[in-house]
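Predict structure. Chain length: 570.
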Amino acid sequence: MNDNKILTNFNSSQQFLPYIDNLKRKLFLNKCTGRNTVINLPKTPLVLSNSHSISIVSKNEVKENIGQISSFTHPELIKSLEITPGVSSLQYEFHRAKLIEEIPNHSIVVISGYGLRYMTKGIFYKFHQNTDFLYLTGFNQPDGAVILEKDISLPRKYKMTFFCLPKNKKLERWDGPRCGLNNAIKYFKADEAFPINQFNKKLQEIVNKKLQTIKDFPTIYSNIFIKVNVVDSTLPEKQQIVDTFNYSSTASTMSVGNTDPDASDQMATLSSYLRKITLKIPKNRWPTESSPYSRNPDVIKSIIPLISNFRLIKSSYEIDLLKKVGDITGEAFIETFKGTKPGLYENHLEAIFEFNVKYRNAQFLSYIPVVASGKNSLFMHYVDNNCKLNDGDLILMDAGAELNHYVSDVTRTWPVNGTFSKPQRKIYQLLLDIQKMCINMCTVKSGNTLNRIHQRFLDILAKELSKVFNRQVSWMETNDICPHHIGHYMGMDVHDTEDISRSLPLKEGMVITIEPGIYIPYDDRYPKEYQGIGIRIEDDIVVGSKKPINLTKSVPKEINEIEAIMAERK
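Prediction complete.
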């Protein structure tokens, strides 16, 4: 069967995506998306409803403003079949299908996005979506939520009910276009869509319907944390909940700084309503007396571990996006090297970096940059960035960019005056050699874990520093010289899939940071020429079968490279 035949079958009256081998899967996806996209299909066949299957592969799908970047508004940045840059509607469909495959029939998934958040009264932050919600939907607007109901009798094995802000010409004049309910169905492939303030009512209807059909409480998976107390193993005690999802109203000056009271009354919060459902669950579904406190009974579960397992292994399209943001980060670091000179302030370098990543179309910084000169480099998360750059000092800069919902996380250390001193050069080269060794350990073949790489790093660091200081450096002392871990998982979030253990064997397609550091305090135990030196070198690495891929190799880190770039300064 060739790729044209596969596409024909997909558009046939049966609307059926059959079992196909890996090669045919790739051909099919490339035909649909027009790019080299490889994904893992669910184990069971995927059937799409008549209302969605043809539209997924139709040409010029988005023909109106849907409240976020699209091929209609930005054809130079996003293709016609993509919901977010680099990610097709079909890919999001598969994300949901894989999730649904892992949960029991008749289960419910309740997952929310973020609302608009405010720095202070009337001053809102640029919107940033919850990444788990984004991973399943591609919806990058405030006040969205989704309920997925697993039902294996349905064409695509689940029903998706979407909640978002409805169209409102008056408010959209202030805040810009919204997706609206019709477009949630048309472009985000929902079966039904309702205003976000109807969430409580619809969730109650869905649960009540399940109670009638399956004669039991359905298992509810959610990204909202619900916590209640069990008293004497009988009834849950009423307890104040920290709400994590609020209707955020609007950014317009007509209601600036406020959360609409009526909307709050109608919506309440997703977390508080889930708690109300929890309080109705029968006693026998709660923990026994041996477990007096519980976040929830056995029918309320976190969806985060399931989504994290999918997000842990990156698809080729994700690696492509991570490579692009890595390249942008490299260019920004080079410009920051060139802009460095004594007498400037740390925040000047922060500004150079931020300008250069955003000039290259990155939407955000990954996090507040650490721009730590001199003794400030001894503090892991120094972000004041307000000190003058002094001749002879080093600068440690930990910074990254976010491009199309994927991030970079990079650290480099370089001299203010453009030339490493002898002590600085010695410590830097020692650390760079160790970092390269740790990167080479990032393979499936090696059988390593992040924790094992960290242990190896500390062992070698202790050995090498013992030579530099002409005395024995203990493992405990090394832990103090570098108090942070060698690395973490990353992807859509800087600290991606945080609930995944660092003791998990490395698998092909994982993306991790490798960031060894040396921070020598002002302490008489250390030679004076080394005191106050803080160095960290960090890269973003794709775990390979036999060889790792450095996504941020474009960011210079060799001593001669850095000094050559800085020699070009005006």
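Summary: Residues 1-94 form one domain.
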